[in-house]
Each structure stands twice: as C-alpha cells, then as structure tokens.
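Duplicate of earlier report; WD40 repeat domain-containing protein input re-posted below.
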Amino acid sequence: MAKTMYPAMTNSPGTELSADITVAATTITVINGNALPAAPNLFTIGSDETAETVMYAGKSGDNLTGCTRGFDGTTAKGWATGAKVARYLTAYDINTLKENVEGISTETINKISAKLVGDLPGIYPVGISVFSLSAADSEAWKSAVGHSGTGDATLVETSKITGDYVIVQRVTFSNTPGVTAVYERTSLANNSWTGAWVKLVARSEFDKLGSDVAAHLADYVRQPAYAQTAGTATAYTVSLDPAPAMLPDGFGITIVPHVDSGASPTLKINSNATIGLKKQDGTAAEMKAGKPYTFRKVGSDFLASSGGEGVKINGQTEVTVKYGEPISAGDPVFVPFVRTPVAIDQPSQNVRDIAPHPNGQHLAVGNQVSKYLSIYYKNNDYAYVRGTVNVDVASMINSLSWSEDGNYLYVGVTDAPYFLIYKFDAANNTLTKLAQPSNLPGYTVNSVFVGGGIVVLCTSQSPYIHVYTPGADTITKVAQPAELPSSWVVSGAFSVDGSMLALSLASSPYLMIYKVSNKTLTKLANPATMPTARIAIAFSDNNHLYYGIAMNAPPFNLGSYLKSGDTLTMNGETRTEGNYFTKLTICDIKKILAGIVYGSSSSAAPFNASTYGISKSRIEKLPMGDTTDTGSLSALALSPDGRYLFVGASTVTPSLRAYMNYELAYKITSAAGATGAAFIGYAAENGSANETKKIMAIAK
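Output:
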C-alpha cells in the first residue's frame, strides 16, 4: 500500500517559534502560521544536523496541534523562542516518493506468484503476473504466458470484489522507456467488460515527476546545501551531490569548518571555481571549527548571511562560570579570579616537593623530617586529607613526578639508591615500592621529568641527565643524547605535545632544548636570543615556553619563548617582579587563560606567590592577590585543572598550604564595574546568582 505523501510549500518560507517548547510539547505555536501548509503535514525546526522533523495533525492560525515529535527518526528536544521553522524537503518526502514509485517496479512485481480464482475461467489469476494482453476494449480474456516484463508486454493485477466483478489494473511496457502507462477497468465474471480502459498515469508524468525532483535537489538557490569542509584553513573544499554545474547568484550553502579559518579563506565546491568567503562588509570571513556558517553567492563572492553564533572574536572561548548576580543572555560581563585558603593536613615539617596526580584527586608530598612521603586525597572542595600512606624513604626527597598514566610515582632522593619507584593504587590510596631498576645513576637525583614517552633523571654530577623508557613496574636505560648539559639542571619541562624537552642550567648556556622523537633526545639549535641568567621554566598548553629569572640578577623578568616546530623564539613582551623566581608552574585555567604561578623567596624575606594569565603571547598579572607567607618557598604546584594551588615552605609551620582559585561573573554595567577582571565577555545564557552558566569569554 502506498505511503502518505504531504504537500510542500513554494520556496519553503520560514517562520520562528513564538515560545520555548519542551521535548514533550504536542501543541507548538509559531509567529506566522501562513508559512506552513494545511494539516496534516510536516515542518522542520532548525537547519543543521541537529534539526527535528515534526508531523502535525491540525492547524489553527499560528497553532500547530497533534504534533508527533522526533518524526521519521529525528530527535525530539527542547527548543528556544526564535528557533527557525519551515516546511523543508525532508528525508521522509524523498524516501516515501521512492518507495511509492518502486512499489510498481517489475523487479518487485515479478517475485509475486499468481493465484487462480475458482469461479472465473481458470485461465485468469487474481494477484499479479505478466501477460500478453491487448489493450482493445472488446478483447476477450487472454491466457497467461509468463512474459518476463520487457518488450511488448503488459503487467496485470486483478482483484476480486464480489462473485461477479473483478478490478483489473494494467501496466504496459516497452523496451525503450520501460513503464509507459497505468490503466484500470472492471470485468464481469462472464468475461465481458463493463467499461473502457481508463488511464491513471502516463510515463510522461512519471518522467516529469522524476525530473522535477532532480531539479529541486539541484536547486541550491531555493534550497541551500549543507556540508562539512575539507581542505585547509585558507582553502576549504566541499563535495555536493548532485554536483552543481555552475554557481549562480543566490547559490546558498551552509558549511561547518573542520578547522578555524585562516587569513582570507576561500571555498571550492566540486569542480567549480574557487570563491572567497566574506563577511557582509566585504572583509574576510572569520570562522570557528565545528560551527555552522551560511553563505550566499553575490557577484564574485560568498557573503555570510548567518552562522557560528555571531561574529567570531579572536580569543573568544565558551566557558562555564558561576554567576555572581542575575545576568541575562547577551549582557557584557567580567570575571575576576579569587583565591581562598583550603584546609590541608600538615606533614611533619619542611616540604621538599609537591606532585598533583593527573586525576586531580590525589597529591604526593615529600618532606624532610620523619615520614618522608605522604599521599593526600581530596575530601571536598575545601579540604585535602592525608591518607594512611606515610612512607619513610630513608633519604631526603628532592623530586616527585607521576608517570604519564598516573600509575607510578617516581622519587628522586639525595642518598643511595638515589631513585625509587612506587606503584599507586588510587582506589585505596596505597603505594607499593617496586624493585630497583638496573643502570641507575650513582649519585643524587635532583629532579625527575616525565613526558614524550620517556623519563629523564637529572643528577648533581656529570653527565647531569640520564634517559629511560617506562615499562611495567620499572624503567629501562636508553642511549644518552650525543650532546649533554655542561652544568646541573635547575628546572625542566616537556612541551604539552611531548615533542620538546627544555632544560634550565645552573651556568651559561642557561637554556638547552632537545627534540623528543621515538623516545630519543636530539640536541636542537639554541634560540637566537638566550637568557643571561639562571631561569625557572614551564611550558603552557599552547606549547610556549615561559621563563622567570631564578637567581639574584635583576631585572627579575617573566617572559616567554614561542615554539614553532623545533624552534624557540623569544617573545619581546616581559613582566618584571621585585624578587627572583624560585619556582614556575603553568596549567590551563578555564581554557582561555594558562595560569603562571611563580614563587619568589630568599632566606631573609617571606615567600610570595603571584599568578599571571597568558593568552597567545600576552602576559598579564591577575588581580587575585599575591599569596604571601613566612618561611622560604620550596615547592609550588597547580592541580591539573588549575583550580588548586599548593605551596610548600621550609623551616616554618604550616609548611604545606593549599588554595582554591574560583571565579564569579558580574555584569559590567553593575556598580562593581569591571574592576579586577581577569577576563571579559558576554553571557550566553540567562541565570540567577550562584547558578553555573555559559559565557563567551575574551582574554583580557
């Protein structure tokens, strides 16, 4: 039986939802009901791959009733006021047309066996078969000859309705066009016809319907295309089916870039000429990966008509924050970072190093007195608790590092055996000491760096570095690099992509960089501009290397090198502090800022820990207040998500401090203004005070 087909609307005029709807709503109100056909029919909400098709049973003015949500395999969901609505051509329309036409194909029909009727002459079946049957009105019944359905043949379907009447439908064929026409007539049981053949539909009508559908599918002016791009950031490509032979004015297409756009992007559609993508003002389009953008061809350009949630702003990123007051979508906002102390159990004294676990829930702390190694776990947002693990490693701890998978803790110590490996059970907060690896250095391990599939031990004596590969419950020594440091390592860091290892040395040259490839270190050329004093270093998430002067050699600058492939280039922008940088640590804070936390200290002054925000190559001190306390700073670390700062000190109690970084969004038009903003932006959602919502943030 043929499936129901629904009428279309010329040019598919659009309207919008006049109110929010839920996933269960069956009555939907639009702004202009005249943009949709009479019920029953279909309409589409949205215009990309997340669109929903809805069937409505009734229509009264602007109200669509008896709605079947998520029709034809689409997904029903809630939609906001203003969502686009139109009677577009849907998969259901095409598939139903295809099924209805194919329902009369010879391939399907010839698979059905004929059934004989007892009270008719046994020569004429009820059912479907192929006969040599004349079209003449006066022709008597003909016998079935089992024709194949091609050439001069007729397909006949008969249907008994009473003991005296049979409905006969005839589909005629010829070799060239295939189906030529469909007819219908009725017959009495005595073989006399009650009327002439009546033509229901001709081949020309089939052909016209097919050509109309093909033309509609290829009409990218009235029905814009949709495609994911390929190619490059400056030369996008898409392939459409059917392929357009030309790109006339008004040609429409919605693209979803696979990468952020570069300078002056272009689009090539199938084999047509490459065309520039422009904003409405004629300047080059700027697009973000994964967002839909709609363009129309006007003259020699594609001009943007919509998409991508508005114009892309360099540095703009969607982030989730807590609102400090009621805020409406679109309100300009500012977000200050705030730091507050967090409770943490105290070790015996004199913290030597701190290593947050990659899971963000655990913390390894090494100290100098009594039990040397402790594991802490996060109890809640405002407390870290020391677990039952308190391991006496029988030597002073110099360095703690977790394996890349977080399953092992590597410990560098002052006395023999100089290096230890512990296996970590996060579920039970336990450490299990493993057997000592072979080929360990024979002297103090000052620091351990992990990344790029290797483990690097830095020692107090030449050759100063020793390279290993991690394995199950051990590490294995591999070949040393051809060029080795000329002095002991002060600080080190792997780039986030693991392709580079940077080492800060105690004497000139103060910086040495290695390429990491196939678990091998190869010395790279020195940057054109080298540091002139000892530095503390750390890589940011965008693979830029940040440094701070780590010895009493003013000016105490904080600066960066920009990484490009195997090359580091010093960035001219620096910031100056009042004391040297003992430690430097970086992590991602809400995606748009990498937080540089540095600690400065001296034996005669309290330590000071401040935070900078970085965006691209800029460095800005965040107005969240310095963390200042007594004692000499000995350790500094940020949790992987940047939310917690851990500070270790020597000679004083408490020797371990923890702080939580958090943020609240406020309207720039509020009484507080934008004072103390870490970054600004605009609200993406309505929300009340203390609700967690999305904003589009722009680095300050």
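The chain has a mean pLDDT of 77.

Merging into the original ticket.
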